[in-house]
Amino acid sequence: MTSDLQRDLGLPATTAIAIGAMVGSGIFILPGIAYASAGPAVVLAYLIAGLLVLPAALSASEMATAMPEDGGSYVYVERGMGPLLGTIAGIGNWFMLSFKGALALIGGIPYLVYVAPGLAEYILPIALGLALLFTILNVVSTKSTGSLQFAIVGVMVLAMGYFVVGGLPDVTPSQTAGSFDLASEGILAATGLVFVSYAGVIKVAAVAEEVKDPGTTIPRAMIGSLLVTTALYVLIVYVAIGVAPDLSPGGGFVPEGGEEVASIAYAAEAVLGEFGAVIIVIAALLALASTANAGLLSASRFPFAMARDGLVPERFEHLHDRFKTPAFAVAVTGGVMMVMIATLPIEQVAKFGSAFQILVFILVNLAVVGFREGVVDDYDPEFVAPLYPWTQLVGMGGGVIVLTQMGTVPFLGAVAITLVSIAWYVGYARPRIDREGAARAGARENVSRSALDRTRELFESDEEYDVLVAITDNTSPDARRDLLRMATDMGRLRSTTVSVVEFVDVPHRMFDGDHADVFADDPPEWLPSGDETPSWFPENHDVHRPARTSGGATDDDRRPVTDTRIEYREIDSEDHNRAIVDFATYGNYDLIVAERDRAQFHQRLFGGGTDWLLENAPCDVLLVDDDGFDGADEVTVVANRGAYDPLKLLFADAVAEETGAEINLLQAISADAPESQRETIERYHEELFSILTVPARSTVIETDDEIAGLARFVGDADLLVTGIDRTGMSARLLGRPGNRLVERVDTTAVMVQTHDGRRSGLLQRLLMNHLFN
User: Fold this and answer.
1) Could you read off the pLDDT of 653-703 as tens digits, one per residue?
2) pLDDT tens string 69-94
3) Average pLDDT of the chain to the nearest whole number
4) Residue 9, SS3?
């Protein structure tokens, strides 16, 4: 991507930004609180948290070298997982970094009061003034910001190194006992608390477009800063525990005025004297200032990057004519920070961001999976995260575990920000964009490839396919012949036994047995026979007495060497739907062909016999809505949800081969669907052409009213093949889209339900709708 941003940040400045974004409250505020939960094992908690953050750092490094654009984790999540999750990541990161920057500016109060008690009443104006200063610096020059950050972090690291070196000789072994004990009580809770100390590690990617040689600089800065910061955390907390009798809040570090202050400063005073404490206070103030500065720099790049993608107003994308910085984004971010400082309970709100940052880490790991498995032609990172996908799975699993330890309030805060982001996306962004993430495109490609493999396997199979044609008292003579015709057409592609069974309803009998009565009578007159057979009837065939015995076994001596064998039975029963299911189960049939009962399809709430048949059939089912089928020039096959079910295509191909028809593969997508979705579907249709045995064409329509659009494009088709979509209570409450389509067209229609696809869950249906509709 061509950009006017200046690439001014080298490895030292980039590393300093990453360290500065991490070191702050994580070392000067959280150790005492975490100590109260886990005791000396808080040292191990910092180490575990650093290890759990490592997968996200590796994943972010890989994506940053492939897409060195400002916006960091937002860009990766948006490109990999789509604009909705990208909006959540972008808005959430913007708010959370702003909150944390504001917290850093007012979080140094105890340290500032320690060296200058008289300044306590001026804390708010000082914090606002620093926020304004950092805003101006970020507007004027990113390079100046990076240089300032490098200087701040340098002094801070030296001061903390002085504390570690000076304090190590005075560490009391008994106070550090259990520092690395995995079995310590509260270790997971402490890990969840200090996890946020590393949240800034991937924030350097937010300014990737302003980094020199990003392919090598970003991975080195990100991984190096994480290692340095983890070592600092572990050493400082270890020393502080070893020299202080109690590091937890209220553990004895209370000055004369009675106000509790930061324990790290008093731990330093215990071993280094007053001069050492002053050094640590200076380091703390510098650390918190660097956190605020890095937070403002990084936070402003999220709306900047989102504006380039159309997710927020384009004003955020504008660069200053002179300074070439996103001045408006920086100014708004700085203004938001100042409003937070002046009005909001920053500490509590900042805790909400902790949970959200973990969610972002999970999304970052997931985004790598989306890119690797998705359809991204130009994804070519210079740095590749090792041990894929185990690194990402560990990172996501660790994030989930940590989330469970953070408490209800922070989690609900993250949920609230997520809901706000979703509302913004739906209300503002969605009408303005036309693209999708690599994961969705890749998932759709995988679904299509899987469907192609299953379709090819079904067409190439030489296993016998046995069909039960279920005739009832309500089936008209014309419909009976059409059901038989469609069933025998299957024999053109597969060796098929067609069992025509007439299910006769009889009155209830008090002493009736458990089983229906089965008769092997001579075929009725309506069945084709002799010289009067129609052209579609298999040549040189008569309707036979049953050759199938119990359990679907056959008498091979009575089976002619043909592709299709037609048999006839009559069954008397009190409930023909139950008899159909029992007979199909007993005979081990592969397919039931029955007439669609229009009246029963409208018995929505309590269902009817057809619903019971669909829910209990042991095999595939075709319901035929006969409108006088007399051959076909065009057979239209509709993909109701996701890819085509192979049985639809096999049946349509068989009928088209017998009638000399052309198949029209008809599929609907939403009017605002990305172009890549149409391209994927068209490629999928072209692959299907090579499997079908008859001529075929593709029709992909864009519509906001799926049923109306499909009905219009079914047009003059002679046969419609669609799906049943839903069964059970969901069908009764919500209706069946396929049923509504059949009722809106004036043609013979066949509704297909496969046994394997009948039990598709709600999540699967939603996923298919998201991928294909």
Assistant:
1) 999 998 999 999 999 888 877 777 888 888 899 999 999 999 999 999 988
2) 766 678 788 877 888 888 888 888 88
3) 78
4) strand
Sign of CA dihedral 638, 644, 645, 650: positive
In a 10 Å sphere around its CB, with 0-12 CB exposed, 13-18 middle and 19+ buried, how is residue 660 labelled?
exposed
Nearest 5°: phi and psi at 750?
-125, 125
Q: What are phi and psi of 504, to 5 degrees?
A: -100, 125
Residue 548 pairs with which residues in a beta bridge? 554
Within a 10 A sphere around the Cβ of 386, how many other Cβ atoms?
Answer: 9
In DSSP notation, 49-88 reads HHHHHHHHHHHHHHHHHH---BTTHHHHHHHHH-HHHHHH
Q: Which residues contact 322 (CB under 8 A, 6 or more apart)?
A: none
CA-CA distances (angstroms) from residue 467 to 176, 431, 496, 556, 631? 77, 48, 7, 18, 21
| Domains of the chain, first to last | 11-433 (1.20.1740.10), 434-461+627-773 (3.40.50.620), 464-526+543-549+558-623 (3.40.50.620)
Position 593 pLDDT exceeds 90 = yes
Reference 216, options 54, 68, 77, 72; nearest CA is: 68
Burial of 380 (0-12, 13-18, 19+ CB in 10 A): exposed
Q: Which residues contact 196 (CB under 8 A, 6 or more apart)?
A: 26, 30, 353, 354, 357, 358
Task: For residues 639 and 447, give the distance between their C-alpha atoms in angstroms, rounded to a whole number.
Answer: 13
Query: What pTM, to 2 d.p., does this model score?
Result: 0.64
Contact 638, 682 (CB under 8 A): no
| For range 616-637, the mean pLDDT | 91
